[in-house]
Amino acid sequence: MRPVSSGAVDFIDVRETNLAVVLRFIRREAPCSRAEVAAGTGLNKATISNIVAELITRGIVVEVGASEERRIGRPAVMLTLDGRRFTALGLEVNVDYLSAVMVDLAERDVLTWHEPVQAAELGAEGCVVRLADLARRAMGEMARQHREVLGITIAVPGLIGTSDGEVAEAPNLGWHEFPLVDRFREQLDDSSVALSLDNDANLGAVGEYRRGALAHTQNLVYLTGEVGVGGGVIINGALMRGSSGYGGEVGHITLMQDGPLCGCGRRGCFEALVGIGSIIQQAAPDLAGSTAQPLTDLAAKVAEVARRAEAGDPRTTAALVRVGEWLGRGSAILLNLFNPQALILGGYFVTLAPWIMPPARRTLAAHTIAPNLGGCQVALSTLGFTAAARGGASSIIDAIDTARLPLPRSGSAAHR
Length: 416
Known about the structure:
alpha/beta; 3 domains; Nucleotidyltransferase, domain 5; five-stranded mixed sheet
């Protein structure tokens, strides 16, 4: 995706930027009239008329009839986003699954797939093959519907640099300095589609911000609840990345000196205390297997932990109380640092919420400096295991809205 120029721009750049400005306004206010778009964007009516006509020709905006509002003169024709032609695809690879979410230009769901896979066993190259196959199947489905995929964003639980398309480190997958975007493009064998890569927690936060139960909360923190524990942080409506793109690695905050070994090689990390691997090891050690081997069948094992807790097994319930207390301690650090309006817990935290959330809330309250959690609402994700993939699809739409990815033109490949 091309960055927006920070220097002088030519006429085409101005035109594309204005198109994006108008599109962004229509997304936010639809259905709306041309006059409302002009008033809301500050562009003159002639410019708006030309831009809207172009957006309609490109299949991005559609007229939806006259306004029902009583007014003098001819009723205004209302505009909204046209979701019939173009889509965006988000993919996620995690320790035990692949996910795909396709949305249209209005971010309405078009396709949602979730497939169990043992990613660590497949290795990086094997995962790319499976991921590219998933993408081709999704794009094939779009082609059958006469739709075009404008871009793909891939979510990975690991350290992702800002622009090189490389996974610097993904300890729970066993990946190191892996050029994922290059390998994926080779497997996909399609040079036309825009590709990008980001951390799963970052994209999970984007998914929550754009489409979650607390959507459009301007300041929120999203915590993944996987083998790895990552944090995505939204500040004033924008994702916090850090200077090199490595921000949000909250799972590797040290909470216990000489504590349990973490996948990163250090001890006592937040992730090592509350990640799903640690939960299974503490609550149901008979399900954990050898510590030298990656955990498999996580969903089934977490379901069994929940079953034992529901049955009142003392070892299981005591372990989940301890996990909840560490979850509260680690989360309090985030509330003290960022003072978010919302803390959203995802992944397997949702499944185990009846047992981990009461101690987590108590400990969180005890360790947060601000009264009443600083006004923070603690909530469980409603997006399930699609949050990161959904955020990936939304990031493509956001790139179009902000002119970092060019708007599709009329006569696109999907309609030739």
